[in-house]
Amino acid sequence: MTRRRPAGTLPRAYGEPDRDEDTFRLRVPPPRTPGRAPGRARTAARSRVRRRRRNRRRAVSLTVLALVVVAGAALLVGRPWQGGGGPADAAPGSTAPAGGPDNAAEPLEEPPPSTPPPSAPPSPTASASGGKDGEVRAEDIPASGPGTFEVARAGVDAKGRGSAYRVEVEDGTGVDPDRAAEEIAAVLAHPRGWSHGGEQSFRQVADGPAGLVIKIATPATTDRICGQYGLKTRGEVNCRGGEKVMVNLKRWQLGSPQFDGPVSEYRALIVNHEVGHWLGRGHETCPGKGRPAPAMMQQIDGLKGCVANAWPYDARGRYLGGPKVP
């Protein structure tokens, strides 16, 4: 029998397959956005993040390396005590070293008159390095000399270790070079001095290069040599210029009216103060009333409430410093 079509329907075209009207679905794919596929985009994003991290790590590493190089250069530059050399070789006419002349302000002015402490004798007694027994008076000290120097040879250690230094005394001063060198060596090697804790070591030489040269000279010669470095000593004070430490004969023989102690102790202050400049230290001032004056203080200008002191360290190894002077 022939199937009857439901009313209102059209005959199916010839060859058209049967369809299940209840289950037929038309699936239309969602539109694609232009660009990379989603998987590739995520991979590219992760790659960019990793590159940024690598670049940051590389930048941090380069910064740290640069800081290490700068720090190493700072340690190697300006260390006069290394290799027996030092500030050596500063040419005459160069700028004045930090701190200027010992115990004198820069620019220099005439210091105010000061009254010696009651306990201080008016004429200190010279020690063995003075070359004579008895008192040394100001009028006994020559104002000028020939400008030639005799090198100390006693105590020379040509093969030892440490910063090489030489001691020279101007001819005609009456100071024995070898005995002066003995005093200076004792100061440099003292446990309260700059050799404290083995931080520095010094050896005396007579010939060959020396990064530090300590010269004891008449006031006029001291003025002339210090003047080559732009320093004014007025015939009264000491200075350090380049590798040269100029010790004024007046101060070596008479000490200072501000320093309440023997001349030998004041000589220790001269050496410690000027060698401190040679090691790169600047001036300091009194840390407080009744406390020891720093060795780097200009004590000849007044103690400002401090107590006279010749040494950079105390007996317990503590540094006796004070506020830095601008």
TrEMBL record:
Query: Mind listing the UniProt keywords for this protein, alphabetically?
Result: Membrane, Transmembrane, Transmembrane helix
* Compositionally biased residues, Basic residues: 43-56
What Pfam families does this protein map onto? DUF3152
| Annotated TM spans | 59-78
Instruction: Report residue spans for region: Disordered.
Output: 1-56, 85-149
On whether Repressor is a keyword of this UniProt record, the answer is no
Q: Spell out the Pro residues composition-biased ranges.
A: 110-124
Q: Does the keyword Isomerase apply?
A: no
- Stretches of Low complexity bias are at 88-106
Q: Which InterPro entries match?
A: DUF3152
Domain DUF3152 residue range list: 141-300
* Protein name as annotated: DUF3152 domain-containing protein
**Organism source for this protein?**
Streptomyces griseus subsp. griseus (strain JCM 4626 / CBS 651.72 / NBRC 13350 / KCC S-0626 / ISP 5235)
